[in-house]
Amino acid sequence: MFVHHESHERPGPKLNWLRAAVLGANDGIVSVAGIIFGVAGASDSLGFIITAGVAGLAAGSLSMAVGEYVSVSTQRDTEEALLEKERRELATVPEEELAELARIYERKGLTKETAHKVAEELTHHDAFAAHAEAELHIDPSNLTNPWHAAFASAGAFLSGAVIPLIAIAFAPTELRIPVTFVAVLIALAVTGSLSAQVGGAKKLPATLRVLAGGVAAMAITYGIGKLFGVIGI
Questions:
Q1: Which of 26, 74, 101, 123 would give a disulfide with 127, using CB separation of 3.0 to 4.6 Å?
Q2: What is the distance between the alpha carbons of residues 21 and 155, in angstroms, rounded to a whole number?
Q3: Cα gap 4→146, rounded to integer Å
Q4: Pick from 37, 42, 45: nearest CA to 173
Q5: Is residue 66 included in any domain, yes or no?
């Protein structure tokens, strides 16, 4: 699932979690804003709008949690199977595993003699950990917990989804749509900027893309709501 690069080219686990949190919050903002604007286009009832928004918030958070739990559980099962296979090979063919570890370090640029020496020392210290890191690129002591991932994903979505809900709930009746629109744009600008910063990309293009997507979602759903409101469906 992950391609191995040198450590300075590969984002760390904390950076990946931060990126996922920012993207989850962005999903929550756009999804619930789209629902709110669609209902607001068809009805002036704040009760209907808030009910639809809360339902979207709950459904989206649960969907994110379940999806992340299933995805991470599958990944963890695969990693555990690979680690168990490595344990068996170390127990049954240790010489072949030592030679394999040495070849890995040769491919990294070490001489044959140095690579063999490094492999021997790492094997003597902790053969399983050495193979897990060098061959599988897995930290056996730090496998991702699917429950943690599920709650984090749901929380990220929830943190973004509440923004349009709060905006439309407390805005003056005649200003509900513009106030919510501005609140969503500000929130999307923040998530777009953070996403670019985390990924090392240019902030302005990334932020403009996020804003364009959010504006399109709100405009389209509001237009659909207006259409269905007019024809009385």
A1: 123
A2: 8
A3: 22
A4: 45
A5: yes
| Residue partners of 116: CB distance under 8 A and separation at least 6 | 102
Is residue 100 within 8 Å of 135, Cβ to Cβ? yes
The answer to whether residue 126 is domain-embedded is yes
Report the alpha-carbon distance of residue 60 to residue 31 in Å, rounded. 8
| Spatial contact of 2 and 75, defined as CB atoms under 8 Å apart | no
Please report whether residue 5 resides in a domain: no
Task: For residue 80, give its domain range.
Answer: 14-227
CA 123 to chain centre: 35
The amino acid that residue 148 corresponds to is: H
Q: Token pair of 220, please?
A: 């389209």
What does the pLDDT look like over 46-97, one tens digit per residue?
999 999 999 999 999 999 999 999 999 999 999 999 999 999 999 999 999 9
One-letter amino acid for residue 63 of the chain: S
Tokens of 121: 């020392």
Helical pair 176-199 and 146-170, crossing angle rounded to 10 deg: 150
The model's pLDDT over 84-123, given as tens digits with 9 standing for 90+, comes to: 999 999 999 999 999 999 999 999 889 989 998 999 999 9
Closest CA to 23 of 191, 152, 190: 191
Establish if 182 belongs to a structural domain: yes
User: 143 burial class (0-12, 13-18, 19+ CB within 10 angstroms)?
Assistant: middle
Structural domain tally of the chain? 1
Euclidean distance between CA atoms 57 and 178, whole angstroms: 21
Q: Tokens for 180, please give them.
A: 């919510």
Strand, helix or coil at 233?
coil
Give the number of C-alpha atoms closer than 13 A to the C-alpha of residue 186, restricted to the C-beta side: 9
